[in-house]
Amino acid sequence: MKTANLGFPRIGHHRELKKAVEAYWNGTIVESELQQVCRDLRRANWCLQRDQGIEHIPSNDFSHYDQMLDTTAMVGAVPARFDWDTKQVGLDQYFAMARGVFSQPGKADVAAMEMTKWFDTNYHYIVPELAADQEFQLASRKPIEEFLEAKQLGIVTRPVLVGPVTYLLLGKCVGDTFDRLSLLDRILPVYEEVLRELQAAGAQWVQIDEPVLVLDLDDRQREAFAQVYQRLKKAAPRLSILVATYFGELRDNTETACRLPIDGLHLDLVQGRSQLETVLDYTAGTMTLSLGVIDGRNIWRADLDEVLTLVKSAVEQVGTERLLVAPACSLLHTPIDLDMEKSLDPNVRHWLAFAKQKLEEVRVVATAVDEGEDAVAEKLEASRSALTARKASPEVHDPEVNARSRSVTPEMCRRSSPFATRRELQEQRLALPLLPTTTIGSFPQTREVRRARADHKAGRLTHEEYEAFVKEQMAKTIRFQEEVGLDVLVHGEFERNDMVEYFGEQLHGFTFTQNGWVQSYGSRCVKPPIIYGDVSRPRPMTVGWITHAKSLTEKPIKGMLTGPVTILQWSFVRNDQPRSETCRQIALAIRDEVADLEAADVPIIQIDEAALREGLPLRRADWNDYLQWAVECFRLASSGVRDVTQIHTHMCYSEFNDIVEAILDMDADVISIEAARSRMELLRAFKDFDYTNEIGPGVYDIHSPHIPMVESIQELLDAAIEVFDSRQVWINPDCGLKTRTWEEVTPALANMVAAAQAARAKYGKLPVDHPEESRPI
User: Fold this and answer.
1) Are 707 and 413 in contact (CB under 8 A)?
2) pTM of the full structure
């Protein structure tokens, strides 16, 4: 029985890719040095997979930044503003598309391409920009080059391409809206050329990822698949094509996928186990099936007995010759190697599997089928032992937490008065100007801040010394915000390593890794907490810091919390109970923190739900259930306060068109959203909807080093006030400022405040030189 893998983490065991890419951006190393690091990483990944017994090893799953951006480079779909010479896409051109081009002498600033979430994961991709007259050409031979690179090592890989239908459907229309699939006849010659070159280079299989097959598609989109793969198969008839689907079930796209003129089809049997029987009926005697039976998105050991039962049922029907065993999706979404974790609780550690260990599980399943279970009896027994211990562990189950969750009532999820009533009371208390200015929460986490945190963790700084350092940073940031003229201040979050990890470290039911890094976007890596047990809050988490910050200023200050849905989404979540139940437990813990902040006389409490939209199921039929419990959990966390306390929330990279009603149902007094990079396009969702609460559409894209000018911010504000009444609008950056430098933040926020003052004069008939005049009630 053959084994396969769809993709492997590219960041390196010690985040070598992140460090090298950032060094290249900073000018510390040159391109040849960066490329050597990348070659070393690819070689290590290929050899590790070979040594784990994987036979279908992927290539071209490596990326300097993002696989969708790689595809944009491959097909030459460089937006016109990047002044491309229409030949090959070089490394600097590639990074310019991801990050923008700013402050070059004699050149105008060029905005980066948009970025959004990859399906319902926490990975971000660079969104293709497509025009109705778009032209394509082979502008990057990376898939062929990396195949040949592996071949020189004696490893014949299975190259991975993002499929043309997925690429086009995930792109955005530039200019007038048009049918993106009308571009297929133009883009397919590039794919055909790549496949011919791979065939000539000696490739035997190619993996073409078409995850849009698990989405809701219309007849036109389904028909496109048959047309595309008839052409691609003819282009390289000796090359076996495997179409990979993942993150869900095929459902009503099953016949479309199974009737394609291809040689193999990959199924996600973790997210959609029930689809196997239907697919087997459709494909009997025709194509190879890749069985994605090991979870590629979470870190729990597989129930190998259950997996073997599923695989053996397939073997009984079609034999081993037409089957592959594989993870359900690319292992990009998991940490690399559990063997690197030396400080994890040994009991919890025994329940886990990272990318390397997941490949071991794939090999165990294949060996058990080929040679019998006795050949891997020790491995199977270890799996059973881990599962049994986890189910029985008192560390996992807390009767008090479960009892409290069952006692939640509908009244606990409702504010005591409607928004209009709350608004008047909050305006009287806060006395803010029209179009108030604020930030999302964090300020630059400088090298000095990171070093102090590391020294404290290592014992080189005492607790008292570290606390004094954080308070000093906080005081400087409060003074800066006052001087620049912001209306609502934040404490800067210098004590926090990560917006989820910080809270998870103080909650029961969480544990943490030392090296469990995964890529979020570009060089940005995150280390998600692991939720292994029932969640509760043993003591206040933020009150001391916020209270101290409040004592440093007369201006209103926000208490900053991460919401229950975001903590859930950005963690590795236990898989032994519904996600909704885990979320409710987190919500109750956050509710306790909100109550303590209000008792400390904090007038504004922000509960960030950056990940609410990304948790939305991929199929519309499944949305209502998710939105019901997700919104309920936010309201459970936020609704225990008095009318006079203002509740904010923040959301990242969200297409809001389909969930505006749910956003309104959250009943936050103020929502802030990322909108600058899209030039306020996201606000279209609200245009025809009677959204009465207040909103802060971001006017400063913090994901690039660009410093927005006053005029640019004014244009964005004008666009926002076309949609909302000026009394509803707040002015803020897109997101937190932790990844930016003070050299960028200082002028950007000064420009933001200047734009706000000008907008007050324009929309509120207020003098520009009186920014502190109170907003009329």
Assistant:
1) no
2) 0.90
